[in-house]
Amino acid sequence: MAGRDVTFSQFRGDEPWRAKVAGIGSAGCNMIERSPVPPVAFSSSQADLDRSDADEKVLISPQKLVGLAQTDVSVIKQMPSVIAEEVGISVKGLDIMFMMAGLGGLTGSVGTAVVSSFARANGVLSVALTAGPFSAESERRRTLADIYTERIMTDVDMMIEFSNDALSSMAPNLPLSRAFAIMNGIMHRPIIDLLAAGTRKDAKVLRGTVGGAVRGRLGLGIARGDERVVKVVDEALSSPWFDFGLEQTEAAIVVYSAADPWDREFGEIVELLHARLGEVRMIHGSYSDGTLGDKIRLSLVLCRPP
Ligand SMILES: Nc1nc2c(ncn2[C@@H]2O[C@H](COP(=O)(O)OP(=O)(O)OP(=O)(O)O)[C@@H](O)[C@H]2O)c(=O)[nH]1
Ligand SMILES: [Mg+2]
Predict the structure, then answer these.
(1) Are 102 and 145 in contact (CB under 8 A)?
(2) Probe residue for ligand 1, chosen from 24, 26, 32, 103 as the CB with the greatest number of ligand atoms within 8 Å
(3) pLDDT higher than 90, residue 192
(4) Which single residue of 3, 55, 115, 126 has CA 20 to 30 Å from 279?
(5) What range does the domain containing 190 cover?
């Protein structure tokens, strides 16, 4: 393992992360269904909240959202209780706030920027998981998504981008609602892995490892058999979301899981990744997942600057 790598803390007695996930806008409210962490449904549409089974629900007007988006971070920091009242989400005691949204509509785009700034102003690590619109959607939606991608990247500790276009290769013959459900499930993967591999002590280390490389993309591999180490790395690195040159990667979050995780296998995976990615800043961890049987899983978030 390379000298600069850091490992998620896994000491007995370390407290688990205190986390929440906000589903923002119509797509976001779909994305938090069956969430592994306490969800908050946050939208400007009552209909989105009505169909959500989240315990915490926040209805916010588009005007208020836009107003909050224009509020300077220093003001947010100076008036935490006023802003908390306006945003309506409680972040008290949290280590990490996840936000899930589809970009291209107003609420998901603006809301993600607002919730993130608010979380960060309160010292909470903020990680956005966003789905970009299909290429076939209107130009207006794609332009809004591009503008807000830039904006959100200045407001988060990390933004993991998923493009809906990958659905056509991942689930080619499914109706859209089924395809969305599959994609929304995959979007939970980094949340599950981060929370299972680390503890609340890792917020600072994670922030330091990612640094300015806030633009993340997910790669996933699952493999079994003799060559499973090589296969799992190959599959994860062939992610449809790695549509940039891998040499642009500055930081990587690596989580290995198996029914019975094996240090030597994990070490080989990390070595292979360094061989393919070069001297990136890496944080890695592992955990046991009994559902994997004889398979191993590698979840990889590659991060680069905006
Ligand atoms: N992955 C995924 N994407 C979705 C889903 N539903 C919608 N989308 C995408 O999300 C983008 C944003 O759409 P919405 O979430 O409806 O927009 P909104 O944030 O509610 O914004 P407004 O209604 O305009 O305030 C769309 O362009 C779609 O590409 C979903 O369930 N999963
Ligand atoms: Mg909507």
Answers:
(1) no
(2) 26
(3) yes
(4) 126
(5) 19-196
